[in-house]
Specification:
Elements: E1 6-10, E2 15-19, H1 25-34, E3 38-43, H2 49-52, H3 70-75, E4 80-83, H4 87-94, E5 101-104, E6 109-112, E7 115-121, E8 130-134, E9 148-152, H5 170-183, E10 189-192, E11 201-202, H6 203-209, H7 217-223
Parallel strand pairs: 2-3, 3-4, 4-5, 9-10
Antiparallel strand pairs: 1-2, 6-7, 7-8, 8-9, 10-11
Keywords: Hydrolase, Metal-binding, Zinc
Cofactor: Zn(2+)
InterPro entries: MBL_Glyoxalase_II (IPR051453), Metallo-B-lactamas (IPR001279), RibonucZ/Hydroxyglut_hydro (IPR036866)
Length: about 230
């Protein structure tokens, strides 16, 4: 599924968090150990099994498969974070106690070491989807001084996440993408949740040729009519 898993950390404190830990938790830990970092938590951009692990959707759920992810990190005592609207599905699919999942609202600030991240609620692909923005004006922040947005399945180079899933919403996605276009600095790098059309973009490029470019809501809904 060409998923990306991201690590964001502070080079001074050697602490890091993993974003969308899935598929190969032991492999993720080997990368962390190789960088001489300490994993202190996990963040989910949304609840889907290919980003958090757990039980896959039908018909694959009938196979009894459990994808490694948040559950394995929870069993190691690591705190896991997500938006409140996706909390129920994460808990159900990964069989972790509800009180062990830390939920956040739109605009929440989260720090690992001295690196501060902002959680922006961007519903559409799922009710609790969010993008994670790291400003470039922080010492040691990624993105060559421009900052980064880890966009989950909200923004892909030239496209966005699927809107034909049971709890997806084309209308909410329209509002989310319009907000990203308004609020995210153009120079910021975009790192998506899958390598569907490249591993990196910029907000500026997506405003020119991707789905951050201007649409009326009528145009958008016509594009996604089912």
């Amino acid at each position: 599924m060409k998923n990306f898993v991201y690590l964001v950390g502070d080079a001074k404190t050697r602490e890091c968090v993993v974003i969308d830990a899935c598929w190969d938790v032991r492999g993720i830990q080997r990368v962390i150990d190789g960088d001489k970092m300490k994993l202190v938590g996990a963040i989910a951009t949304h609840y889907h099994f290919d980003h958090t692990g757990g039980t896959p959707p039908p018909p694959f759920d009938a196979l009894g498969i459990k994808v490694p992810g948040i559950r394995e990190l929870h069993l190691r005592g690591l705190p896991c974070h997500a938006h409140e609207e996706d909390a129920g599905e994460i808990v159900r699919r990964n069989e972790i106690p509800r009180d062990k999942l830390i939920t956040h609202k739109d605009g929440a600030l989260f720090k690992v070491g001295a690196i501060e991240m902002k959680f922006m609620h961007t519903p559409g692909h799922s009710p609790g989807s969010m993008v994670i923005a790291v400003r470039g004006d922080q010492q040691g922040a990624p993105g060559d001084g421009n900052g980064v947005v880890i966009s989950g399945d909200t923004i892909f180079p030239g496209s966005c996440g699927r809107l034909d899933l049971p709890d997806a919403s084309a209308e909410r996605m329209f509002d989310s993408l319009a907000r990203c276009a308004r609020e995210l600095p153009e120079e910021m790098y975009v790192y998506p949740g899958h390598d569907y059309n490249g591993a990196r973009s910029t907000v500026k490029r997506e405003k020119q040729t991707g789905l951050l470019r201007p649409f009326t809501k009528q145009q958008w809904m016509t594009m996604h009519a089912r």
